[in-house]
Amino acid sequence: MKDERDAWGDALGVSPCNVQKKVPVPGTQALWKGLSILKIIAEAPSSVRFSQLMELSGQPKGTLHRILQALIEFRLVRVDAEQTYTLGTRLFEMAHKVWNDFDLRGAAEPELIRLQKLSNETSRLGVFEDNSILIIDQKETMNPLRLELGVGKKLQLHASAMGKSMLAHLSPSDFSSAMVNCPLERFTANTIINEAEFMRHLDLVKARGYAISVEEQFVGVNSVAAPILDNAGKPIGSVSIAGGTYSLTQERLHSLGREVIEAARRISGHVGESFMSIATKRQPTKSGNNNWECVVASESFLGEGPHWNDELQRLEWVDILEPAAHISNPETGEDKTIHLPEIVGAMVPRRRGGHVAVTQFGYRTVDLSTGAMLPLATPSDIEGCRFNDGKCDAKGRFWAGTLALDASPGKGALYCLEENGKLTKVLSDLHISNGIGWNADSTKMYLTDSGEKTIYVFDFELSSGLLSNRQVFAQLRDEEGSPDGLTVDMEGGVWSAIWDGWRVVRFDQYGVIDRVIDLPVPRPTSCAFGGKDLSTLYITSARIRLSSEALSESPLSGSVFAVETGIKGVPINSFAG
In angstroms, how far is the first alpha carbon of the chain from the final one? Predict the structure, then answer.
C-alpha cells in the first residue's frame, strides 16, 4: 500500500501524510488539515476517491469524512455519484472576487525584479490606455537606455513587443476596437505597416507565446514581451525586457521569450497553465543507444515535417515558427532556408511539380525558388487555429491536422484534401493533431494527438480514404514526454519523436516500445526515413521556449540528426492534385 501511496503522491506533486510534515499555528490544526485536503484535491489530475484521499492525507477515516462534509457544506468540494471528489463552485466565485480586486502592479513587482536581474536589462510592466501601452512600472539596469521611456510613458500598440503581445490575444471585437484609432504608422524601417502582414505577424506571436520588437518604434532599441492574461484569458497587461540592440540581439530576444512567458504566468497565478509548454523535463537515464549524428546544424525555432525527396536525394523540412522551408544535404551539412509568408506546418512534393504546404490559413502551393504561396484550399473554421503536421497517403490525398494557435484543447481537427480539390474535415475535437503515417500496405493509419500524449490507430481503406475502428495504439505518461511527429517502417514499427523526452522511440506493431534512441536535445519533433536505401532516420528538433539554462545543456536544439536504423522505411507519397 505504501508503494501505491508514494506513486500517487509523486503524480500529484504532494507527499503522503504531508499534514504532519509542517507544524501549524497552535489552535489551527483542524483548519490546517482541511486546507491540506483541499490542496490534494486541487492538484490531482482527475477526481479523487475517498480511499486515495485517506492514503495521501494520512487522516483517519472518521476525521477525513467530517472534514470533507464541512468542505462540501461550504461548496469548496463536490462529490459525485461514484463518491469521487473535485473542487466546488464556491472557489470559482472566490476567484472572480480575487480578479476584481487584483493588484497588477503589486503582483508583478517580484517578477520584474527577477527579470531585470536575470537579463541585466530593463524590465517593464504595461497596460492598455488610449490606444497605446502605458508603462506603469519599470526596473532599470545600472546603465539604462536614456530614451525617457520610464513609468508614465507610452508605447505604440503595433510597434512595441508589449502592444503586439496583447493585441494577439484579444477577441476579434476587442481587437477591432483597439485598432480603430491606431493606424499602422511607420516609425522606423522595421515597423510593419501592411495590414495583412501585421495580422500574419500577430498569429506568429500567438503561436510563439511571446512578441519581439526589433527596432520597430525606436532605432537602437529591442524588446521581448508576453501578455498577462486574466482568468478568462483576456490580456490585462504585458511584461517585457527591453534594451539596446547591441546587448539584446534578436537571438537573445528569442532565448528570453520563455522567461517573459513564465513571468506573465506567475503574475496572473496561471503557473500551472499547460496549453503551451515552457517547462522542460530532466534528461532521462540513457538507454545506451545514442548513435546519432548531427547532419544539419541549425537553430530552428520549431523544426518539423521532414521528408526525403528521393528524386532529388535531399531532405526537405520546415521551421514552423520562423516560418521557413529548408532544403538540406545531410551528406555535406549544407542547408538552404526559404522564408515563407505564413506559419507553415508541413510541406510535401507535388506530382505535377513543386510543393504543397499547410499553413495558418489552409493548403497552399509553394514555390521554393521564391517562397511565394498561392491558395489551394481553406477550411471555413480555420480562424484561431493553424495547420500542424501532414502527409499524403498512397493515393496522393493530403491529410493534415490543426491545433489552436495558443494550443488550447479541443480545437484541433483532421482534414483530407483530395486530388480533385475537395477538402473534408474527417475528425474534430482534437487537442494537438500531429504525426501521421500509414503501414506498408495502407491498411492502418496512425495519428498522434500530442496534447493527449496518445497515438491512435485506425483501419484504413485506401480506395475510399475512409477511417474506422479508432483505437489507442500507444499512450505516454506525463513524465515521459509527448509523442510528436512519426514515421512507419516496412516491418510495421512506428517511430515517434518524443517532445520533452530527449529521444525517439520505436513502437512495435502492438504499441510496445522495443527500441529507444537517446538524443542530445529535449525536444525532438519529427522523423522520416531517407537516404539511398531509406534506412536512415532523420530527426528534426526545436529550441522554442527553452530557457537559457536548457539551451546551454542542449546547444544542438533546433538541428537535424541522423541515425542508421538497419530497417527500411515506408516511402513517402506526393500530393496527386
Answer: 60
CB 411 within 8 A of CB 386: no
CA distance 127 to 112: 14
- For residues 290 and 58, give the distance between their C-alpha atoms in angstroms, rounded to a whole number: 44
Contacts of 404 (CB under 8 A, 6+ apart): 275, 384, 385, 411, 412
- Burial (CB count within 10 angstroms: exposed 0-12, middle 13-18, buried 19+), residue 7: exposed
Q: What is the pTM of this model?
A: 0.82
Task: Please name the residues in contact with 102: beta carbons below 8 A apart, sequence gap of 6 or more.
Answer: 230, 236
Instruction: State the average pLDDT over residues 477-488.
Output: 95
> Known catalytic residue: 484?
yes
Say how far apart CA 44 and CA 70 lie, in whole Å.
20
Pairwise CA distance, residues 524 & 450, whole Å: 13
Lowest mean pLDDT among 468-472, 476-480, 481-485: 476-480
pLDDT value for 141? 77
Q: Rounded to an integer, what distance in angstroms lies between the CA atom of residue 88 and that of residue 69?
A: 12
Question: What pLDDT digit, counting tens, does each position of 195-248 carry?
Answer: 999 999 999 999 999 999 999 999 999 999 999 998 778 999 999 999 999 999
Render pLDDT for 492-533 as a digit per residue (tens, 0 to 9).
999 999 999 999 999 999 999 999 999 999 999 999 999 999
Cα 181 to the center of its chain, rounded Å: 33
At 239 the three-state DSSP class reads strand
26 class by beta-carbon count within 10 Å (0-12 exposed, 13-18 middle, 19+ buried):
exposed
pLDDT at res. 13: 41
Return d(Cα 550, Cα 280) in angstroms, integer: 8
What is the C-alpha separation between 344 and 34, in angstroms, rounded? 50
Q: At 103, phi and psi to the nearest 5?
A: -95, 95
Task: State the Cα angle at 320 between 265 and 532, rounded to 5°.
Answer: 140
| Among 352, 516, 495, 348, CA closest to 435 | 495
Q: Distance of CA 346 to CAs 323, 349, 365, 389, 400, Å?
A: 11, 11, 12, 5, 8
* Whether the bond into 571 is cis, omega within 30 of 0: no
- Active-site entry in 484, 489, 500, 518: 484
Question: Residue 2: is its pLDDT beyond 50?
Answer: no
The C-alpha cell at 537 is: 532516420
Whole-angstrom distance, CA of residue 296 vs CA of residue 87: 49
Single-letter amino acid, residue 502: W
Contact 371, 341 (CB under 8 A): yes
Chain-centroid distance of CA 72 in Å reads 36
DSSP string, 284-323: PPP-S----EEEE----SBEEEEEEETTTTEEEEEETTTT
Alpha-carbon dihedral sign for residues 287, 316, 482, 465: negative
* Residues near 176 by beta carbon (within 8 Å), at least 6 away in sequence: none
- For residue 166, report the phi and psi dihedrals to the nearest 5 degrees: -80, -40
Q: CA-to-CA distance for 468 and 470, rounded, in angstroms? A: 6
Can you tell me the distance from the alpha carbon of 488 to that of 411, in angstroms, rounded to the nearest whole number?
Answer: 27
pLDDT value of residue 98: 57
Helix (H) or strand (E) holding 175: helix 172-179
